[in-house]
Structure formats: C-alpha cells, structure tokens
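Example S7 (structure tokens).
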C-alpha cells in the first residue's frame, strides 16, 4: 500500500546511517555519568539516544569477566572513578593535635576545598596588604544516628527539573516511531524502536548502582581531629571529631554495582549491535522515515546536551555537604591581607579549648599533642633568623593569653 507520508525525493538521497551511532556520543556519556544523582532518572531513558557506539564502548569496560574484557578492552577502574566520583587529588592536611600530616588527601577533601574557594568571605583589615589568604572554618557535625562498621551511608538521589525534562525526548521518540509505522516504513520504525529499547534498558541497569559515602573509623581514644587543608593561599580549618574529619580527608564515594556487571556488558553489546543494524537498515527506509529518525535523534541529543551541561562536580559538593550535615551556619570564610595574619588566626582557631569554650593553658598543650609551632611553620616555612624570631614571639604571646 502507498505510504501516507510518502515523499518523492527525485534524485535526492538522505543517508543518516553515517551519523547514527557516532553523533552525540560525548553528550550521551556525560549525561550517563550523572544518572545516579537524580531521582527516577534511570526509569526515564526510553528515547532514541544518539552515540550508541561511543556509549557502548565506554561503559562496556565496567563489565567484569574475561569475555567482556575481550569485547571492551581497557583498564579496570572502580565504578566511582569511572563516573568521576573519585580520582581527584585533595590538598595537604595538617592535624593540629594528632600529629597527622597527609601530603595528599582524597576526592572529598578536594570537593571541600573547591567549595571553600567559591565562598566570598569577610575581609579582615590589619593595616597592611601583601597577598590575600582565604581561610574557611568548618565545624564538622556528628551524624544524627550511629552508623554500622564500616561507616558507609547510602546517598539517596534528589528530585529536580532534569527528571521532568525527560518527557520531551521520550514523547518525540515514541511519536516518530508511531509515524514511521503509520507510514509503513518498517525499517526506520524498527530502528527507532531498537534505539528506545536499548537506551531504556541501559539506563535502568546503569542507574541501579547504590551510591554510598564511605567514611573512616577512628579509635575511641583518638584526640579531636582538628586540622587544616592547605592549597596555596586557600586554607580550610576543620574542627570536630577525628572520625568526622577523617571522612573528609580519607573517605570516598562508592558505587556498588553487584550483581549488575554482566547486565552492563549485555547492554553495552546491544548498543554496539544497534549501530551495526542502523548502518544496514536505515538506508533501506523511506525519506520520510529517515527524517523521523533524525527528528528523534535531535530531540534526544538536545536532552543529553542539557544533562551534560550540569556540572557533576557541583552536584558532588552538594551531596557531601548534605551527607555531612554541613549547613551555611557551620561554615565561615575570612579573607586576610597578609600571610602572617592568616597564620596567627589559624593557630588561634586550632588552639585547644575546654568544655566551656575557654583556651586551655599552655602548660597542658604538650600532653594534648598541640604544637602551634608546626602550624605556623606550615604557613611560613622560611627558616631565616627574622622568621624564627617572629615565630617565637607569636608563640610567647599565645602562651600568655588568658582563656
């Protein structure tokens, strides 16, 4: 029978098979990497998404078996690092009482430092100006309920507009698929339908991982974990229990995919097969069917482009603040105009206090493990006579302070 949407192109031929599997691959990958952050997004992937070849080859590396390693060769990475939830190197950490010095911290400390860099802060005038130093004070909060060992906390996805916008590419994909069927173009109909099914199943599988915040256990007798993260002229003072601060400096995000690894391999293989089928069958369709196929691709690409524009790192900052119960009143930022004033301020803020909030006498610092000279030396490491004299003078003043 004659197609209801038949177009007579003459000598014109539209060949969309060349871009079917490769176009929009980067956007589709970036969109998939944020799938765990939005509520119900794993159930809203039923649209004819472009870039199936790139997506299949990329995420097929997550599958764990010799078969999948052969089909999708590449380095074996933990899922959290694969989704860019881990892998960033954090700044140096210097503890004020436990004696711990970490030259490099983990991904969570990196996020905290980046968050502090974005704070405006209150400028502290001291009459001189050499170089701005920003200090953010964070008072860590103990979780509302005790966590089992190991202290892993489930992170629940959040609601938001990205989930609602998924209705648009889904509607366009199903509409164009139906129009191809109405036009009796079963080649383009089957290819749009295959794209919808493969993308939908892939989203369900990839979004089924459990996202957790892996903390760090500390000894019951451990001293307070007060210390500072140092990244050049940006300093973060962490005040609170050792366990809470250790979560920031040594904790991590974890993605648990068991028992979905084989399913990931099958879905990735289906996406690769989808490209091969599109290369063979799309040219056999009518011009109107190919136009419908392109329209579904364009709508899906636009949605993926929107998702890829969402900053994954900003979402992670919000997650870590929420899971650690850190709100605006727990963070305060100051800007000092000299390095020396910043060093003195940090040393005073890290000085031990008693239960009434008063400074503990200097003769008890040693038994508490507090070494202010180490803190100041990390700010100003110069070992010249002038700076040695200045450091000694600052320590003398601190020791004579009345709490």
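Recovered sequence:
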């Amino acid at each position: 029978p004659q197609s209801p949407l038949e177009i007579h192109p003459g000598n014109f031929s539209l060949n969309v098979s060349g871009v079917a599997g490769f176009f929009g691959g980067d956007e589709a990958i970036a969109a998939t990497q944020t799938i765990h952050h939005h509520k119900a997004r794993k159930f809203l992937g039923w649209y004819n998404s472009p870039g199936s070849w790139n997506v299949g080859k990329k995420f097929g590396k997550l599958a764990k078996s010799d078969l999948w390693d052969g089909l999708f060769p590449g380095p074996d990475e933990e899922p959290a690092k694969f989704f860019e939830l881990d892998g960033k190197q954090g700044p140096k950490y210097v503890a004020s009482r436990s004696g711990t010095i970490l030259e490099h911290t983990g991904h969570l400390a990196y996020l905290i430092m980046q968050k502090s860099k974005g704070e405006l802060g209150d400028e502290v005038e001291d009459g001189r100006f050499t170089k701005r130093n920003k200090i953010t004070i964070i008072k860590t909060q103990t979780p509302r309920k005790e966590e089992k060992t190991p202290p892993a906390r489930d992170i629940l996805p959040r609601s938001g507009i990205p989930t609602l916008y998924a209705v648009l590419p889904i509607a366009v994909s199903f509409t164009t698929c139906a129009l191809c069927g109405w036009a009796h173009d079963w080649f383009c109909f089957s290819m749009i339908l295959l794209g919808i099914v493969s993308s939908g199943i892939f989203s369900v599988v990839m979004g089924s991982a459990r996202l957790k915040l892996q903390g760090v256990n500390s000894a019951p007798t451990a001293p307070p974990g007060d210390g500072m993260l140092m990244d050049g002229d940006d300093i973060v003072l962490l005040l609170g229990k050792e366990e809470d601060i250790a979560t920031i400096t040594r904790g991590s995000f974890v993605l648990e995919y068991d028992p979905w690894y084989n399913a990931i391999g099958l879905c990735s293989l289906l996406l690769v097969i989808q490209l091969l089928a599109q290369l063979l069958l799309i040219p056999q369709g009518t011009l109107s069917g190919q136009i419908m196929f392109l329209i579904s691709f364009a709508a899906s690409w636009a949605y993926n482009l929107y998702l890829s524009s969402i900053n994954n790192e900003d979402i992670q900052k919000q997650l870590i603040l929420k899971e650690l119960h850190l709100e605006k009143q727990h963070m305060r930022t100051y800007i000092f105009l000299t390095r020396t004033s910043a060093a003195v301020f940090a040393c005073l803020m890290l000085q031990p206090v008693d239960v009434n909030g008063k400074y503990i006498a200097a003769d008890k610092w040693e038994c508490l493990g507090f070494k202010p000279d180490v803190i100041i030396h990390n700010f100003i490491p110069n070992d010249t006579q002038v700076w040695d004299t200045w450091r000694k003078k600052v320590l003398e003043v601190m020791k004579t302070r009345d709490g």
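Notes on this example. Residues 351 and 359 are 7 Å apart (CA to CA).
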